[in-house]
Amino acid sequence: MTLAGDDLLPNPDLTATRGISIAATPSEVWPWLAQLGQNRGGFYTYDWVENLAGVEIHSVDTVEPELQIRSVGDDVNLAPEVVLSVVHLEDERHLVLRGAVALDGTGAGAPYDFTWAFVLQPRTDGSTRLVVRERYAYLTDWAKVLVEPIEMVSFLMTERMLRGIRDRAEHSPSRTSLRSPNHR
Questions:
Q1: Which pTM was predicted?
Q2: How far apart are CA 47 and CA 155, in angstroms?
Q3: What is the pLDDT of residue 172?
Q4: Closest of 69, 176, 82, 67 to residue 118, by C-alpha
Q5: What percent of the chain shows pLDDT beyond 70?
Q6: Where is 170: in which H helix or E strand?
Q7: pLDDT band for position 173 (50/70/90)?
Q8: Which residues, 6 or more positions from 140, have their beta carbon under 8 angstroms from its beta carbon?
Q9: Contact 78/54 with Cβ under 8 angstroms?
Q10: Residue 177 CA: distances (Å) to CA of 58, 61, 66, 108
Q11: pLDDT at position 51 over 60
Q12: Which residues, other chains included, contact 19 with Cβ-Cβ below 8 Å and sequence gap of 6+?
C-alpha cells in the first residue's frame, strides 16, 4: 500500500514496512509518536543498546507537551549529531521524517537518502494500526554495504519501538476508550 512520504523517494533501493495493532485510538497513540527522538522522548526501544553507542537516549513513560513535534521543519535527532527533519505532519494521522545522513553526522557526502514514516490507521473497533516504513535511496556505490547491516539492527529496534509505543498508549493513565466497563 502507498503511505505518506512514499512520494519523496519514489524508487527506493530498500524498503522495510512493519506494523502493530494497538488497542487505543489514534488520538491516544499520536502523543507518543509526536515526541520521538533522541532530543525528545526517546524511541521506546532498548535504551541501553542505543547508549552503548553513546547516543544518550532516555525513553520517557509519560507524554510531555514540551517534547512534542509541532510542525514541518522540526528536527528529530537519531543521535546528538544525526538529525532528521519532519517533512510531512498531520496530527493523529502521520509523521514522516527525512534525512541524508553521512558518516560524520552531516548531510554532506551522505551515502544514502532516507525517509521514515509513521502512519496511524484507525480501525472500526476504535483501535489503531501503526505502520512504520523506512525507505532508502542509495547515493553512492557502497551505500548497500552500509545500509543492509543497519537494516538488520533496525528490524530489532523497530520491533521493540512498536511494542513500546503500543504499551504506553494502551496503559496511559488518561486512556478511557477501549477499556472494559469494569476497568477502574
A1: 0.87
A2: 15
A3: 76
A4: 69
A5: 84
A6: helix 143-170
A7: low
A8: 111, 112
A9: no
A10: 28, 19, 25, 46
A11: no
A12: 129, 130, 131, 132, 162
| Residue tagged 505532519 (cell numbers) | 89
Which of 126, 155, 121 is closest to 14 using CA atoms? 155
**Short-list 83, 90, 93, CA closest to 114:** 83
Q: Are strands 75-79 and 94-100 parallel, antiparallel or unpaired?
A: unpaired
Which set of grid coordinates corresponds to residue 178? 477501549
Distance of CA 79 to the CA centre of its chain: 14
* Res 136 pLDDT > 60: yes
Alpha carbon 166 to its chain's center:
13
Strand order through the sheet with 82-90: 14-22, 128-138, 112-122, 94-100, 82-90, 75-79
Distance of CA 9 to the CA centre of its chain: 17
pLDDT of residue 182: 37
Q: Which three cell numbers stand for residue 108?
A: 554532506
Separation of alpha carbons 171 and 158, rounded Å: 20
